[in-house]
Write a structure and sequence with these properties.
2 copies of one chain form a homodimer.
Chain A: H1 22-25, E1 34-40, E2 46-52, H2 54-63, E3 67-70, E4 75-78, E5 87-94, E6 101-107, E7 123-125
Parallel strand pairs in A: 1-6
Antiparallel strand pairs in A: 1-2, 3-4, 5-6
Chain lengths: 135, 135
């Protein structure tokens, strides 16, 4: 079995399948998608949020690289295939409702298609800051 | 003007309104909502993901505390009002498509209703880790 990108993956003796576990536990919305938060390992930077269907989740958990479902293009989108800005999967977790995924990654280069490191670098909002009351 | 919780907020000389700016730029989905990622200031922990409509976003940007729209209860939900686990807003940013919000907060206690610090503590998934090829 040889597929593009396989050389970049850690080899396991037997390929693990998440069937019957995470894939069945994950709760997808009416469009069959769940939001996936992508976070840089180590620094904790929130890089972006993308969407995954069951198959994109399966690929992400088993291929070592993050795959999204592109809502605009209506196709699978393995991050970095065209840009080179690969996201190598390090860890993943479902939230308490199993309807949101957090993926910890090693991000190569810019996560954002605009060229910035994260998708949240370009539009900081003015806020009224809250502070905890003095005890 | 005195409202519950005001004592916990930084005072500005003039109250800033985000009307015509962030609220009009934000892109909401067909249900009128956008996902809001909540991150702890400093540590970078991703605490949870909630949903906001335009009014919840307005409150979050102007009140110093995070307010969500509860999809299950169909009502506004100012985090911490019942649990005490308040989220004080420190910063916020829209992503490159303006359809996702990142809010940096000071989280009091547990972010998750299950009692864990974050909503992603309870269900780590088995993954095949990806590693970058050696140059």
């Amino acid at each position: 079995m040889s597929e593009p990108g396989d050389e970049e993956l850690e080899r396991d003796e037997d390929v693990w399948s998440p069937e019957g576990s995470a894939l069945d536990r994950a709760v997808f919305n009416a469009d069959g998608l769940l939001p996936a938060i992508i976070q840089q390992e180590g620094t904790g930077e929130v890089l972006m949020l993308g969407w995954m269907d069951r198959e994109a989740l399966r690929r992400t958990l088993t291929e070592g690289r993050v795959t999204f479902w592109s809502r605009s293009r209506q196709e699978y989108w393995r991050k970095g295939d065209t840009s080179g800005h690969v996201q190598y999967v390090r860890a993943a977790a479902l939230d308490c409702d199993a309807d949101t995924l957090l993926v910890t990654v090693e991000q190569v280069g810019a996560a954002c298609h605009t060229g910035t490191r994260t998708c949240f670098d370009g539009d900081p909002l003015e806020v009224r800051k809250g502070i905890a009351p003095v005890e």
